[in-house]
Every structure is written in C-alpha cells, then in structure tokens.
Write a structure and sequence with these properties.
- The protein is 30% helix and 19% strand.
- The protein has 183 residues and is α/β, with parallel strands linked by helices.
- Helix 1 crosses helix 5.
- The N terminus is likely disordered.
C-alpha cells in the first residue's frame, strides 16, 4: 500500500503540525494508518512518515505525532523503532503531543498484549512529551500488558487477528478523542 504524500518530507517542507509515523512495509499497521488518516478527514492535514527512514530532525519537525507501534514477538518493539530508541532517548520532547496506536494478538500473546505501545509511551513521556489517546481495556481478554496504565491502555490497541470487526469503531472513537487535542 502506498501512503498518501501531502508535502515533501525529504527537505522538511512540511505544512502540517501533525505527522503519523509507521512502517510503510508493515501491511497491517500501514492499513490502520490509512484508516486513521481517513478518520481525521480532509480538513485536517496529517503527514505520513515512514518510521524506517526516521531522523531526529524529521521527528522533531512535528508538534503533534501519531506513532504506529505494533508489538513483535514476545512483547518487543519492531526493529525499526528499536533502532530509533537511542536517538529518541536523547531528544527533548517537551511541547510535543503524542498519541500511540499499536497492533497485538491477545489470544496468542495474552501475557504481553500490546507491550510495545507501553514501551514507547514510557520512552516519550520520560523525554517530556504529553501522551494522549488513552483507551478502555473493556472488550479485551489478555493476561497482562505494559500498555495498561491505571486500568486503561496508554494508546489505541487493535487486535486484527481475533477482533478485526471492532477496529473501525475503535479507530473512529480514538481519532475523535485525539483530534481536538491536535488542533
């Protein structure tokens, strides 16, 4: 799936303050990103950015960020995010507003469902970012998750393997909640 490109990103000519960062090569995460962009609507400019080509300068060029962070294996960050973490841990993210979505499988990995969302949330909050987009844990069946904080997920968790029919409504509700905070 080819992501939409609204503006040149290579030379940082960005006319939007909101970027959505995800791997263009991760089919399910990319498909969700497209649904999120559609849900924001055409009046809200959101720039897709390939997380596999991310630089510190590009990351910092946005005030509002949506991060697509699927959970790999036994609760790990995908390698492209994991490789960016050392740079991310050196950035000052004060003044940045970040919302995180991620995919996981609560049936096959119930002991670490959506952990990558929680791992990324901890990193960006430790660097001073304001985290938004908390969602309810109702309707999920898992044992534990690093994404759960005080009874809520610290982002949007989707299970495209066992609950794909619930994703559209979950995305719509989540975007509705974060859109006003990105204005």
């Amino acid at each position: 799936m080819q992501p939409r490109k609204y503006w040149l990103i290579n030379n940082l000519t960005i006319m939007s303050k909101t970027g959505i960062f995800y791997s263009f090569n991760s089919k399910k995460t990319a498909k969700v990103a497209e649904k999120i962009i559609d849900e924001f609507g055409t009046d809200f400019k959101i720039v897709p950015v390939n997380a596999e080509e991310l630089t510190e300068e590009l990351f910092l060029s946005f005030n509002h960020l949506v991060l697509g962070v699927p959970t790999w294996f036994d609760g790990e960050l995908p390698n492209y995010w994991d490789e960016f973490v050392p740079a991310l841990e050196d950035l000052d993210l004060k003044g940045k507003t970040i919302a995180i979505y991620g995919l996981g499988n609560q049936v096959e990995y119930p002991e670490n469902f959506g952990d990558a969302v929680g791992i990324m949330a901890n990193i960006v909050q430790a660097r001073g970012a304001k985290l938004i987009g908390y969602t309810s844990t109702n309707g999920y069946n898992y044992e534990s998750s690093k994404a759960e904080v005080e009874g809520k997920f610290c982002g949007l968790l989707l299970d495209q393997e066992t609950q794909p029919r619930l994703s559209k409504e979950r995305i719509s509700n989540w975007v509705g909640g974060i859109k006003a905070q990105f204005s």
